[in-house]
Specification:
With 349 residues, the protein is of the alpha+beta class. 16% of the residues lie in helices and 25% in strands. It comes from Mycoplasmopsis agassizii.
């Protein structure tokens, strides 16, 4: 069962700093003790679960989705990095920030051998500066077809497969359900946001088939069932009904914050054992007047203390195994027209 190796994942010798989803989304993440630990936990290979949780501050309810080992599945169409162009995280990485769809060349410039290896193509506009302050930069999914992205559609095939970053403006014409944050008001919007309506499901299965090695599928009689079983998180315990049961769509609408993960992360960072580990929300506020989503974060251990390994000095650029998504309840009908470009994140100090 192989997926074509993603050339967008590159190794770099750097000092690892456990840090920063920037732009005020995640600043310094505090490690907190696990309330209950299995005495003999098994190492995670794959896992998916939905949890009803309350915040540490004021016990506000929210719903959390944790995925592990499903790197090729996301709820949104782009990977949010929550890292801005002036972040030290990007320096010395062989990455391209693309600012313009006025692409006149089919081959990108060579990366410098030493020093700051980040390449910027095109002049950053004031509109781009503003949206990047709010939401940072986004990376494309490997081999995903972005019909609605002007920059993507200006690139050669080789450039489309390069390591590059763009901003949220490239998602303006995407379906709301496939943006990095969306508002869910109905059962139908929930289903489409989870990619479980027929159109979204078929699109994703075609995508998985397109990035699968031919040898993986050559002797498979039912390709869709095979792809669903091996590369999608859905199961008897993690499915539409399980997620819907955690929500009250008659009383609340839900802001769906998707696919929070460390796009710049370590390789060989020790095994993980607890699916219900990683990010949690300590406190949140949704201000519909200022259009701000304010969040403070906690972090739960993902392995017992005796199994933690020292962090190595290799950092990966690419998709990490663990991702978190959150559904924040808001009063039913209190947000009439949700356009994520008009909103911003704010860190609660």
């Amino acid at each position: 069962m192989k997926i074509i190796s993603n050339p967008k994942t590159k190794k770099r010798k750097l000092i690892f700093l456990f840090t920063t989803l920037a732009v005020g989304v995640i600043s310094t993440i505090s490690l907190v003790a696990c309330s209950s630990i299995d005495s003999n936990p098994k190492e995670l290979n794959k896992g998916a679960a939905v949890y009803s949780k309350t915040t540490e501050v004021d016990k506000k309810p929210y719903v959390q989705i944790n995925l592990y080992g499903y790197e090729d599945f996301t709820f949104g169409n782009w990977y949010p990095t929550y890292t801005n162009s002036d972040s030290n995280t990007l320096k010395y990485r062989k990455l391209i920030i693309r600012n313009s769809s006025d692409n006149k060349v089919t081959v990108d410039p060579e990366f410098p051998e030493t020093g700051n290896q980040l390449i910027t193509i095109g002049k950053e506009t004031e509109e781009q500066k503003d949206i990047r302050k709010k939401w940072g930069l986004f990376a494309p999914k490997y081999k995903w077809v972005y019909n609605n992205s002007p920059i993507y559609n200006s690139l050669s095939d080789k450039q489309k497969d390069s390591d590059y970053l763009v901003d949220a403006l490239e998602q303006k014409q995407e379906p709301d359900s496939q943006k990095f944050i969306s508002l869910i008001k109905t059962d139908e919007e929930l289903k489409s946001s989870l990619r479980l309506d027929d159109e979204s499901k078929n699109l994703y299965l075609k995508y998985l088939e397109s990035i699968s090695e031919k040898s993986t599928l050559e002797n498979v009689t039912d390709k869709n069932s095979f792809l669903e079983k091996n590369f999608l998180p859905w199961s008897n315990t993690f499915n539409y009904d399980a997620i819907k049961s955690k929500l009250d769509l008659k009383k609340y609408d839900y802001i769906f914050i998707k696919d929070l993960a460390r796009y710049f992360h370590t390789e060989g960072n020790g095994s993980e054992y607890f699916l219900d580990g990683g990010l949690e929300i300590s406190n949140y506020e949704v201000d519909k007047n200022s259009k701000e989503i304010s969040i403070s974060w906690n972090y739960k251990p993902t392995a017992p203390k005796d199994k933690n390994l020292a962090a190595p000095d290799i950092i990966m650029t690419g998709v990490s195994k663990r991702s978190h998504s959150f559904l924040l309840p808001v009063e039913k009908g209190s947000i009439s027209d949700f356009k994520v470009d008009d909103w911003s994140f704010k860190k609660i100090s």
